[in-house]
Design brief:
Radius of gyration: 17 Å
Structural class: mainly beta
Number of helices: 1
Strand content: 35-45%
Distance between the termini: 50 Å
Helix content: under 10%
């Protein structure tokens, strides 16, 4: 078997997202919910969807506002 064939058949490395679903996170920057409501920095929410192997997340907030927002990974920290 040639090197080219082995390289083609090789499995791609698995990427583990920084935060798995249902992780509780804190926003590092202000955000806006899908409904246009302001979410201040420091708000706590729960990851409900992981996008692009963890490049962005759908975060659900209960307070200070109720709603969901798509937030980039660098704007989140573990709560």
């Amino acid at each position: 078997m040639s090197f080219e064939t082995m390289h083609t058949l090789r499995k791609a490395p698995e990427v583990t997202p920084l935060f798995p679903e249902l992780s509780v996170v804190t926003t590092l920057r202000d955000a806006v919910t899908d409904d246009g409501l302001h979410v201040p920095a420091g708000a706590r929410g729960t990851i409900v969807e992981v996008y692009a192997d963890g490049e962005a997340y759908e975060v659900e907030f209960a307070s200070p506002v109720a709603g969901t927002a798509t937030i980039l990974a660098e704007a989140l920290a573990a709560a």
